[in-house]
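Sat 14:20. Reprocessing the chain from the morning session after the first attempt stalled halfway. Input below, unchanged.
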Amino acid sequence: MSDETPAHVCVVCHNPRRLPTRPPVCEADRAALDSWLAEIPDLLARLDPAGTGNGSGPKVSGSKDPPVPLSVDVVDLASPSRTGTLTITGPDQIGYLSVASELDFWVADWRLLLWPDHSLPVPTVAVLAGWLRNRTERACDEHPAIDEFHTKIRQIHRTLTRMVGDTKRTGEKVGSATPTAAAPRSTPTRTCPGWRATAAAPRGRPGCT
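Finished this time. Tokens:
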């Protein structure tokens, strides 16, 4: 923090006009996190309405036509949480990490740092998002990387919102599209701080590597 930065400026938006009443995160950024976490499961469900995430659309009994393939990006985003996928990668990586993997990483991180006596939730997007949402207020007060979490959740929400909107504009059924070129992989690019480097991996999930 520079000498010109107000002592209690929000660590997320750094807006001097939006000083937090509950430092270090302002009310607007707290509300945004709550809203995004509430909407992410629904947005993902609208992209993959059958919950397949396996490269195929819903199979209709008696249908002679093969299922319409899901977009490659939708398959990536809707895939289950996978251990060992959330690592620092280079710029040549392509595709998206699954939403479940992204949320699962932060659940493990928060649990280790703030709720070590809590059990891990089932690693589905709806359950993971709900777990994080129920603990956001304390995380905003105490987590040393809440700004990074805010950035990640905003990115996930924007990606899902854009993909739902793009699909609607093309007139195609949500969740069904011609496979497209994969987008740049959304992965952390920072150097792992010491408190995260020692993170345990209760579900086989690593800390930063």
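Residues 28-56+66-189 form one domain.
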